[in-house]
Amino acid sequence: MDYITAKKKAFSIVSKMNAEEKISQLLYDSPAIERLGIKEYNWWNEACHGVARAGIATVFPQAIGLAATFHPELIHSVADAISTEGRAKYNANITYGDRGIYKGLTYWSPNINIFRDPRWGRGQETFGEDPYLTAAMGCEYIKGLQGSGEFLKAAACAKHFAVHSGPEKLRHSFNAKVDEKDLYETYLPAFEYAVKAKVAGVMGAYNRTNGVPCCASKRLIGDILRTEWNFHGYFVSDCGAVADISEHHHYTDTLTKAAAAALKAGCNLNCGEAYTHLLDAYEEDLIDDNDITDAAVNIFTTRVLLGEFEENRPFADIPYSKLTCPEHKQLNLEAARQSLVLLKNENHYLPVNQNKIKKIAVIGPNALSTIALEGNYNGHADEYIPVADGMKIVFKSSQVIVADGSQICFDQKKYYDGFHDLENEAAAVATQADFTVLCLGLDRNIEGEDTGCENEITNHGDKKTLYLPKAQMILADKICDVCDNLIIVTMCGSAVDLGERVKKHAKAIIHAWYPGALGGLAIAQMIAGMYSPSGRLPITFYNQNTPLPDITDYNMKGRTYRFLNEKPLYPFGYGLGFADFSYEEFQIVDINENEIKVRITLTNKGKMKALEKIQVYAQYTDSRTITPNYQLCAIAVAELDEGETKSVDAVIDRYWIKAVLPDGKRTEPNGNITLFAGGHQPDPCSESLSPHPCLSVQIQ
């Protein structure tokens, strides 16, 4: 069903309602209107990396891990599986008359904010620090979730619009100050592309942007989203954000005026209770019937597109057996495999020879953790394979010994609950083993959405440091004392610095993010060489001593690979594999005013079949403005057998190689444009870490 037809049907439905009934539908927990045959509907549902908060579902790698795959087509498949499970749950729930929270088909995902600061706790929910990668992954997620049929399989919602990435403690009152260049160059592109992908919804952020609360911003919602980009979907507030307009931003002096300001600006749906005051606003002439009707029509258009009012409900034949089915588990395992980033592999220590290993130590607070597999905004899997269990499955002929070693986060000692001072136990286990897998990291109780608490490492979910908690650093140091063959696995949603001694001592370092329910199996299979790792960093890893701007500073100077002046610990786009890909040729095969088609020829000179994540960057100059160091502008995936040579085409949207002027306008650069292709970024740090340099070509 096309949008115009759906909107006409929505208008027909809404036209039968009185003002009070229309207002009632503008809250996330929309009640039934029995006289019109309209069922209750709860708009709030989550699916960041699987159907969340609604019982059993496939728990895929957290979004930042999905971004690390550098594989948009894979993300499309993951999102398609998520909406299949969502429809299966929906079909079962309405059979029993259950239309409550987390039971609907409107998923408030993906989070396409830019992970501009490595300390932000919610960065794990995003697709990383780069606007192009975020847009590419976000668009495929949206398309996969919504489907391509006559009706929406599910409705995606891009969030949080706009200029939102911490600090968590201040988010309800914070004013994000940003100039036009950074706004249009960094913070808006992923949302613009989400609109191009026909995303059903957009969610407003908690904060103010340049003094105006995002959910009451006529510029953001009306001028940019609706007019400039021609967005036709529904706009929803973040939960409680409309109340923040008066209570924390003090933008209005009453909640009634806050609700009116949001509605007039174009916020159609309220997650929260503030829109219960719209009837008062209506009676006080702060809003009129057209404001209410327009909002109601927008949200009912989405319900129409989901097929709610059809006699034969679409997708009704998707059975409950699709939940965590074998096909989805296999996809989950593949996503986990491709998300893992191998940061270090000294003298090709990995993969290890399974036949020569008698005893393996798996130690650390995340060795048996299932919460470290999940991340946040998660569902509940029917099967979890943490790292220790994965090692037991893969290394069947070896003895696997497990020890805790420490808690995730605890800097006091001499307690009596039995979970402190365990480094010596871990050391005893490590000394017996042929090699040790040390499982460190964080979990959602430490980094995440406004946890409301502060400890040694975090402030309301945002990190204070790039180091791991003291207990883990003590453990790692102890294991370095007793173990030469050390493999470190870090499980967290952000960048960490392990410290110089640990980084140098470890034979291999695997950054696993929050890798999903089967993540431990994927990790063990990598260690055993059952596949070649292909994950790449979607964020820059900084040294702890790298001077970072304050987390409240939204200027992009000195942030992310695009504007960083310091040498990173590990650069954006970096990741090792077991194969050896040599880039042979890079050429432009077609060029026009909108797109550039390039062809990359590469050879797998390694000894195993492997995936390669091809990255194309642009470097351009313009005398009128500051331009990025480099800008990722295309990615492609190639699978090559041992010794195989293959040519792969990639298409560059010229949007990504235009200079953004101080007024926010995109224009052709007035200087040189150079394109680079390789398995990494063309910066000096990446080039020094790789045996093969990027190839380059100039656009004339």
List the helices and strands and how they pair.
Elements: H1 3-14, H2 19-24, E1 29-30, E2 41-42, H3 63-68, H4 72-95, H5 131-146, E3 157-161, E4 175-176, H6 180-187, H7 189-196, E5 201-204, E6 208-209, E7 212-213, H8 218-228, E8 234-237, H9 241-247, H10 255-265, H11 278-283, H12 289-305, H13 326-339, E9 341-345, E10 359-363, H14 371-374, H15 387-394, E11 399-403, H16 423-432, E12 435-441, E13 458-459, E14 462-463, H17 470-482, E15 486-491, H18 500-505, E16 508-511, H19 519-527, H20 560-563, E17 581-591, E18 595-604, E19 610-620, E20 631-640, E21 645-653, E22 659-660, E23 666-667, E24 673-678, H21 684-689, E25 695-699
Parallel strand pairs: 3-5, 4-6, 5-8, 10-11, 10-12, 12-15, 15-16
Antiparallel strand pairs: 1-2, 6-7, 9-16, 13-14, 17-18, 18-21, 19-20, 19-24, 22-23, 24-25
Helix pairs in contact: 1-12, 4-5, 4-13, 5-7, 9-10, 13-19, 15-19, 16-17
